[in-house]
Amino acid sequence: MSRILIKDVTKAFGDVVVLSHFDAEFVDGSFITLLGPSGCGKTTMLRMLAGFEKPTMGEIYIGDQEVSSEKNFVPPERRDIGMVFQSYAVWPHMTVFENVAYPLKMKKMGKQEIKKLVDEILEIVHLSQYTQRVPSQLSGGQQQRVALARALVAKPKLLLLDEPLSNLDAKLRDSMRFEIKEIQKQLGITVVYVTHDQLEAMTMSDQVIVINKGCIQQVGTPTDIYRHPENQFVADFVGKINFLPAESKNQKLTFKHSNQQIPYGGDLIGDVVVGIRPENIRFVSMKGDLTGTLVSKFYLGDVNDCRIDIGGELIRVIAEPKSFDTCKEGETFNLRIDEFMVFKDSGDDFHTKILT
Amino acid sequence: MQVLKLRPPLLREGQKWYFDPKWLIIIVIVGFLLIFQVLPLIYLVYRAFFSEGKFSLQAFKRVYTYPLNWSALVNTIVSATFSMIFGVLIAFPLAWLVGRTNLYGKKFFRTLFVVTYMVPPYVGAMAWMRLLNPTVGPMNMALQKLFHLSQAPFNIYSMGGLIWVLTTFYYPYAFITISRAMEKMDPSLEEASRISGANSWTTLRTITLPMMLPSIVAAALLVFIAAGSAYGIPSIIGVPGQIHTVTTRIIDFVYIGSQEGLTDATTLAVFLMLVANIVLYLSTFTLGKRQYITVSGKSTRPNIVDLGRWRLPLTVAVTLFALVVVIIPFVTVALSSITVNLGNSIFSLENITFRYWERIFTRKSILSSARNSLVSAVTAATLGLLVSSMMAYLLVRTDVKGKKIPDFMITVGSGTPSVVIALALIMSMSGKFGINIYNTLTIMIIAYMIKYMMMGMRTVVSALSQISPSLEEASQISGASWLKSMKNVTLPLIAPALVAGWFLIFMPCFYELTMSTLLYSTNTKTLGYELYTYQTYHNQQTASALATAILFIVFGINWLLNKLTGGEFSI
To answer: Is residue B107 classed exposed, middle or buried when 0-12, 13-18 and 19+ CB atoms within 10 A define those classes?
Structure first.
């Protein structure tokens, strides 16, 4: 358990700056997610926390200890951190027990105590019956749990997870997500989790840090990030969204292509971009905010995914599944907008472009 | 539920036997190897036990009660064992320093150590017998002056000298094997150890080293076999000091020429073959299965260890090592080639001459030997690559039955000591069984292929297995025939490997000594043999000029290969 402080950290590999002026504070016992497209610098940040990379500039504190600065650098083995790697990194020449016992052996603990602690943690990750197996006899999910047990066994101050679920199949990923969250709550440990999967970020985190091109875009709770994104990049990266250029005047937003209007109580004036999440638009029989013609619909089981022409532009609407049977292509509908966000129009599409 | 009846789809009604054209390839390759490798080797063993037509251990009794032979056996085992131990002790830290740390100039060092692998070992022997000559060796004299010793500190014509030269020329085998294994290792395995609380040193000891153990053992066995079946080094370094090895004894016995001499050679060769095959079996078929597969995830960037304040001292140490083991010997040989009197200093103008260089480009016998070597190496490399490519395709792309048989035979061939291959060919291919190719270049080419084909095969196999079959399938689905797909997709992708494979067979054949020494005739002398005779009987400077020329060719080809394959391959 530990408070983490990252002060103005910049990292460059040669001339390439992969992370610039990163400032953050992680509260003790919280679950933090670094979210961003691949190549955004999130893994680099994690590796600097672990001590595998040295920041080019800036300081990092874990608890009260300064682990990285101009003057000091604490190597990974003396940072008291647990880490789960994307490839699991379970040692093939050791059994499950030996793998998990390794951090304790490094602490020079007695045999009895090591056995007790290893058994405890293997119980938590449901691997008790596999202690004497070697990794090649385990499935991917089991190897992943060995890695998790190894990261947790020494009761570290901090647990780092580097896209630990990306190599698992969809079903297993789902259940591991809850398991990791459960274990974190049980142990009350600080966790920093790196992922590009917004679903993982949403379900597990107390705090999400969205990163793009080496810069923090937003820090907030999952609801903050989703409902009140600070810019178009965040809005687009976290979830699905329609962006419509509009003009704000006299408490009204006028969409530039369709000339339809909706009321607006905010204080942005002039050229703006309106962001509407597809699930915040509903089909209504009367008194809609917009009208449009159904162009196409896709039945996905849990939802009906529609494209609607509101006059000069298409918007995506995610409607209830039963609407699939009643709506016909070519018909006109009234649409109610439950929630939308407004961004200043910067005139380019820089923010919406996601480099992957 | 209905039970589906499965029937091989290619078998039509009433057709009992289906001929797969791939079998034809296998039959041709197996046939070739059977006639020129397996049967001669079997005949060799047979001859050792049935020397006079009936079973007898007489030959064994005679050979192994003769003290000189016994000491040769002991010398071989001792020198090979120590070379193996020292070779690995040198190769592992070097591979680690060059591959996994921030040592200065590690790329340069890597190339330097790997290139040694392609240099004929007898060049090392020539250099060291000059440098550490007990009376006039310049290195000996320098050390004597430096430490005010009453006599020269080293005598190269000793067991220690033999082990030293064997080690410095065979450790690259271990270096390459261990380096490759280190590159393949997922760096997060080591990072996981660091984060678990282990420092660099503990990580090296508890994670890196045990994970590498199978590769290290394989590398050690490789050095053991190479050193144990070496002929060039022991014949130049060992024989003058009365240190005989099994290989030099075998060749001595063959040179005696009598029936008894041949039988004695055979009997010794059987011992060498047995040792080599047991080791080969251990390393390929037992250790091979224990190799840990460490498929790395995304982060394949190797984990570079910061040496900290050890960075400079270690770089200096590696530089000194490179200087002593690689640079000084090569420079010595090069300088010898332009020295009039080897006893005098090279640094005086009247002692410098280019007449030996002129000689190697004008003397008829040298030119004809060079031509012989070129012809046989080019033929062996081309045929060898053809077989390698076909084998690679069979092994990687098909599951035709029996593809393992020629693979096994080629592996055994390359693991058999050169002396044994040559002797077996002499015994069986001089007309006894209807084939008489003794005294021709053909027998040379066949021997080269048996010994060195595997280098090409491994290169092509690994290149082909990295190409997803779906690339070929995508071409076929786009309308290209199988042959066109091969030509348009597969061939361009494996072209660098084919070029590399060709040179990997060509180079050792071009300067081959051991087999040539047994198989040559007056018209089929090779470059390696020519050099050897000049070194031992005529004129060391001429031999040095030849060796230097060979070094230039090796470096030149390495450079060319690097250019041709876009940096993907160099030897």
So the answer is: exposed
Strands A65-68 and A57-62, by their bridges, are: antiparallel
Please give the DSSP secondary-structure letter assigned to residue A348: S
Looking at chain B, the whole-number percentage of residues with pLDDT higher than 70 is 88
Domain of residue A279, CATH code: 2.40.50.100
Instruction: Give the CATH number for residue A87.
Output: 3.40.50.300
> Which residues, 6 or more positions from A110, have their beta carbon under 8 angstroms from its beta carbon?
none
A92, closest residue in chain B (CA to CA) = B292
Could you tell me the residue ranges of all domains in chain B? Answer: 20-49+337-471+480-571, 56-116+157-316
Q: What is the pLDDT of residue B344?
A: 63
Domain endpoint, select from A172, A199, A233: A233
Distance, in Å, from the CA atom of A135 to the CA atom of A146, rounded to the nearest integer, reads 9
Q: Which residues of chain A have pLDDT under 70?
A: 1, 347-356
A191 to chain B, closest Cα gap in Å: 15
Nearest Cα residue in chain B from A153: B196
Residue type, A293: T
Reduced to 3 states (helix: H, G, I; strand: E, B; else coil), residue A56 is: coil
Cβ neighbourhood burial of B340 (10 Å; 0-12, 13-18, 19+) = middle
List the one residue out of B570, B450, B433, B431 whose CA is nearest residue B514. Answer: B450
Q: Out of A43, A78, A85, whose CB is closest to B192?
A: A85
Task: Report how far residue B225's alpha carbon sits from residue B455's, in angstroms, rounded to the nearest whole number.
Answer: 16
Domain B20-49+337-471+480-571 is found in CATH 1.10.10.10:
no
Would you call A86 and B292 a contact, using CB atoms and an 8 Å cutoff? no
Choosing among 3.40.50.1220, 1.20.140.150, 2.40.50.140, 1.10.3720.10, the CATH entry for B56-116+157-316 is 1.10.3720.10
Instruction: Provide the token pair at B299.
Output: 């982060």
pTM of the model: 0.78
Task: Chain A: give the shortest CA distance to residue B499, in Å.
Answer: 35
Interchain CB distance below 8 Å, B186 and A78: no
CB A88 within 8 A of CB A143: yes
Could you tell me which chain A residue has the CA closest to the CA of B194?
A77
For residue A33, the model assigns a pLDDT of 93
Task: Give the sheet arrangement for strand A290-299, strand by strand.
Answer: A281-284, A332-337, A290-299, A304-309, A314-319
Please say whether the dihedral angle defined by the alpha carbons of residues B176, B182, B185 and B187, taken in this order, is positive or negative: negative
Distance from CA of A92 to the nearest CA of B (A): 7
- Which residues in chain A have Cβ-Cβ distances shorter than 8 Å to B305? none
Q: In this prediction, what percent of chain B has a pLDDT beyond 90? A: 4
Chain B residues within 8 A of A151 when measuring between CB atoms: 195
Please give the Cα distance from B61 to B488 (Å, whole number): 62
- The answer to whether residue A349 is domain-embedded is no
Domain hosting A27: range is: 4-233
